[in-house]
Design brief:
- The protein is α/β, with parallel strands linked by helices and about 375 residues long.
- The chain has two domains: about 180 residues, Rossmann fold (3-Layer(aba) Sandwich); about 150 residues, Rossmann fold, CATH 3.40.50.460.
- The protein contains twelve helices and 15 strands.
- The longest helix is centred in the middle third of the chain and has 22 residues.
- The protein binds 6-O-phosphono-beta-D-fructofuranose.
Length: about 375
């Protein structure tokens, strides 16, 4: 029997709906090609770096029906950066060390001829560094935040918007019953895409995003106007990365060694206190959606996008398009170099048609 070529796939960083659909799309493509076999590294690169090694050979049974399932069958971590890998020093204290060359050498020695890294901007920056060290690697973009500028949309984002909109709709009826001011905090890191889409889909009165610092007094004026007009309730969507004019983002540094991400969260509570201080005609409540936005079944659009990206990744392996990432541009799948993919961040452009739409719908950005 002819020896098959070997590829390995992994999922890194925060999970998001659609990861399993990529893995299944890639697996089926590999299977029908016949010349390759597909392996998976457990918990991003940790599976390859661990001793004993923790990798699995993917087969029909492991991948059957997984496109419907949230999360990732390969598990993930945000503490597995091989360039900044968490290790304990001789005194038992956590520190980090660069294990990237060891990783590249190990993957090549194991006979893998292609690596597919499904991850967001942090993961793809790692992909680029490993590519520079000689690893034949391809990136597949994922994130609920939609903050990668090289692709029009990432899978997981539309599902997160759907989850946020469903929750928002529920908060509208309770806001109306109690004549309250309801604040809903959504994820998105430094980009306001989830908040902006949810505000339009749900019909929010106020939408606060990182790209437009807000003034609490201006927010209060919009609220007063709405109460004065007889519509005695207000629904606000606030992105976790939103900040007051002249203020700072709210959150804290990660506690875990190897997790470089600043943990955003809490601005919805902060805004509640700001509004409570300024008025007493309405009660204020805050709901923080948190990780519910990353969980559960991907909606159809994300399953389709993710599956197509898995198939495209194998096309790229066959064409030896290493050092590149799959991208979705103008309703087509294309490729972009990892360098380009990680060189800029996808902030909400203040001239974007959705900002214009929101303003015309009477949504206040607190500016
Ligand atoms: O990048 C995805 C994301 O869900 C962000 O929206 C959020 O700020 C962050 O990850 C949360 O990270 P963690 O899973 O480490 O709490």
């Amino acid at each position: 029997m002819k020896v098959k070529k070997k590829a390995i796939v992994l999922t890194g960083g925060g999970d998001c709906p659609g990861l399993n659909a990529v893995i299944r799309g890639l697996y089926k493509s590999v299977k029908y090609d016949g010349e390759w076999e597909l392996w998976g590294s457990i918990e991003a690169f940790n599976g390859l770096l661990s001793d004993p090694i923790n990798i699995i050979k993917l087969d029909d049974e492991k991948t059957r029906g997984i496109h419907v399932k949230g999360g990732t069958i390969l598990r993930t971590t945000n503490k597995g950066n091989p360039l900044d890998f968490p290790v304990k020093d001789k005194n038992g204290n956590w520190t980090t060390e660069d294990r990237s060359q060891e990783l590249v050498d190990k993957i090549l020695a194991l006979g893998f001829e292609a690596v597919v890294n499904i991850g967001g901007d942090g993961s793809q920056t790692i992909s680029q560094k490993l590519f520079e060290k000689g690893l034949p690697i391809i990136g597949v973009p994922k994130t609920i935040d939609n903050d990668l500028s090289a692709t029009d949309v990432t899978f997981g984002f539309t599902t997160a918007v759907q989850i946020a909109t469903d929750s928002f709709d529920k908060l509208v009826t309770t806001a109306e019953s109690h004549r309250r001011i309801m604040i809903m905090e959504v994820m998105g890191r430094d980009a306001g895409w989830i908040a902006l889409h949810t505000a339009i889909a749900g019909g929010a009165e106020i939408c606060l995003i990182p790209e437009i610092p807000y003034d609490p007094d201006i927010i209060l004026k919009s609220i007063e106007k709405r109460y004065d007009s007889g519509k005695g309730f207000v629904n606000i969507v606030i992105a976790e990365g939103a900040k007051e004019k002249g203020g700072e983002v709210i959150g804290k540094s990660a506690k875990d060694s190897g997790d470089a991400n600043f943990k955003l969260g809490g601005v919805g509570m902060y805004l509640r206190h700001q509004l409570e201080k300024r008025q007493n005609f309405a009660q204020v409540r805050t709901t923080i959606l948190g990780h519910t936005q990353r969980g559960g079944t991907p909606i159809a659009f994300d399953r389709i996008l993710a599956t197509s990206m898995g198939v495209k990744a194998f096309d790229m392996i066959k064409e030896k398009q290493f050092g590149k990432m799959v991208a979705y541009k103008n309703h087509r799948l294309t490729t972009v170099t990892l360098k380009e993919a990680t060189s800029s961040y996808n902030y909400v452009d203040l001239n974007h048609y959705l900002v214009h739409t929101a303003r015309k719908m009477g949504v206040s950005f607190g500016d």
